[in-house]
Amino acid sequence: MMNLADLGRRGLVLLGCGKMGSALLEGWLGRGLALNSVWVTEPFPSDWLKGLAARGLHLNAPLPDAPAVVLVAVKPQMMAEALPTLGALGGGGTLFLTVAAGTPIAFYERTLGPGTPVIRAMPNTPAAVGRGITAITGNPLASEDHLALAEALLSAVGQVVRLEGEHQMDAVTALSGSGPAYVFHLIEALAAAGEAEGLPAPLAMQLARATVTGAGELAHRAPETAAQLRINVTSPGGTTAAALAVLMDADTGLGPLMQRAVKAAADRGRELAR
Ligand SMILES: NC(=O)C1=CN([C@@H]2O[C@H](COP(=O)(O)OP(=O)(O)OC[C@H]3O[C@@H](n4cnc5c(N)ncnc54)[C@H](O)[C@@H]3O)[C@@H](O)[C@H]2O)C=CC1
Ligand SMILES: O=C(O)[C@@H]1CCC=N1
């Protein structure tokens, strides 16, 4: 049975440590993972990573023979080049936990050998502040212990949900994996709209940013549904109702637009899988 103590003893390997790998690593180190139990393979290490290496993290060093977990966090486009370098760790007791969008579990099984436990996870960047959400699903070799270990690791940086199966992964990627970008773009669009109504740019951006983060925090904490929170802002015949008439238009509103955006992301995930 594998647990977090085992992870400290046998080691955690990160293949690729860019934005997502760093967000996860930051969360784990914050939760007490020892620097000397982490091996990172990263051709372009950040200054942050180099600083960690100076304090005991193994950076671009020979890997342990049988680490407890390999976290795969390279771009799908780099996968075919990067993953075979870890071929020797496949088919043994090492769990491969991958966050790459689009790359199907079958690819890892083909590259690492059929006896390899693989868990595919889709996190998002709010993990950097402990407020991510990650969806996971494993191959048949990923045991309940493996899933529990992945859950323990990923819950260090936010919520974790288990999927029915890999068939849900492209939709999840399109919703929560890419979703933070849609929200950041909402901040940009809201600020630009404020500017168009005559506000100076810095003030418009301050108002937009605080509004989105404040509303997000309220949605996080309040027991009411999102619909009820929306209704609470909307005075009959008032300003919000006028805006929502535009945003909730069945043909030209945010609903159909968001559907198109999420479908484009899910389609791209399916394309990357080919
Ligand atoms: N950024 C995000 O919001 C999310 C990203 N993901 C997934 O996480 C993965 C990484 O994405 P990001 O961190 O955003 O990209 P990134 O480009 O910031 O990080 C990828 C890292 O892999 C490194 N790399 C390239 N070739 C390598 C090799 N041969 N061996 C080892 N490392 C190598 C790069 O130098 C880079 O630092 C992707 O597969 C993406 O689909 C998943 C969920 C959310
Ligand atoms: O844009 C991407 O492909 C990755 C997956 C989810 C978020 N970023």
Question: Can you walk me through this structure?
Answer:
The model has no long low-confidence stretch (mean pLDDT 94). The radius of gyration is 21 Å and the shape is elongated. The longest helix has 21 residues, at 201-221. Strands 3-2-1-4-5-6-7-8 form an 8-stranded mixed β-sheet, sandwiched between helices. With 274 residues, it is an alpha/beta fold. It starts with a helix and ends with a helix. It has helices spanning 4-10, 19-30, 47-54, 76-82, 105-112, 144-154, 169-177, 179-196, 201-221, 226-233, 239-247, 254-273; strands at 12-15, 38-41, 58-59, 69-72, 95-98, 118-122, 132-138, 158-162. 1,4-dihydronicotinamide adenine dinucleotide (NAI) binds next to helix 2 and helix 4.
Could you provide a short overview of the structure?
The chain has 274 residues and is an alpha/beta fold. Helices cover 50% and strands 13% of the residues.
Please specify the SSE layout and strand pairing.
Elements: H1 4-10, E1 12-15, H2 19-30, E2 38-41, H3 47-54, E3 58-59, E4 69-72, H4 76-82, E5 95-98, H5 105-112, E6 118-122, E7 132-138, H6 144-154, E8 158-162, H7 169-177, H8 179-196, H9 201-221, H10 226-233, H11 239-247, H12 254-273
Helix pairs in contact: 7-12, 8-9
The structure holds 1,4-dihydronicotinamide adenine dinucleotide (NAI) and (2S)-3,4-dihydro-2H-pyrrole-2-carboxylic acid.
